[in-house]
């Protein structure tokens, strides 16, 4: 099985004074924050440091971490804004 890191890149319109600019953002999923001891009133994480998809992009397996087996939503989401692109020519 091959482990993969998922990085999602999107261009989203930025609502500002200049309506022709776009902000490029990259989303990365970091360490797992799932509390495995919540049912007994404690706090314990598994130590998974980075989300790695266990399947191809576009499948349901792409949302499961190959390292720890939990859903991508349990991993810390880190959004990086990389500046703006001006679409006016």
Shape category: globular
- Average of per-residue pLDDT values: 81
User: Element order, helices and strands?
Assistant: EEEEE
Taking the sheet with the most strands, its summary is:
3 strands, antiparallel
The helical percent reads under 10%
Radius of gyration: 17 Å
Number of E-state strands:
5
Question: Explain this structure to me?
Answer:
The chain is mainly β and 89 residues long. The protein has strands spanning 4-5, 7-13, 21-32, 52-53, 75-86. It is globular, with a radius of gyration of 17 Å.
What's this model, at a glance?
The chain has strands spanning 4-5, 7-13, 21-32, 52-53, 75-86. It is an all-beta fold and 89 residues long. The strands form two sheets. The protein has a three-stranded antiparallel beta sheet, with no helix packed on it.
List the helices and strands and how they pair.
Blueprint: E1 4-5, E2 7-13, E3 21-32, E4 52-53, E5 75-86
Antiparallel strand pairs: 1-4, 2-3, 3-5
Key traits:
89 residues; mainly beta; 0% helix
């Amino acid at each position: 099985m091959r482990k993969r890191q998922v990085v999602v890149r999107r261009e989203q319109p930025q609502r500002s004074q200049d309506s022709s600019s776009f902000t490029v953002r990259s989303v990365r999923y970091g360490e797992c924050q799932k509390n495995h001891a919540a049912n007994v009133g404690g706090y314990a994480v598994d130590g998974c440091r980075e989300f790695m998809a266990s399947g191809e992009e576009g499948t349901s397996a792409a949302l499961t971490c190959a390292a720890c087996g939990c859903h991508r939503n349990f991993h810390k989401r880190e959004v990086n804004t990389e500046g703006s692109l001006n679409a006016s020519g």
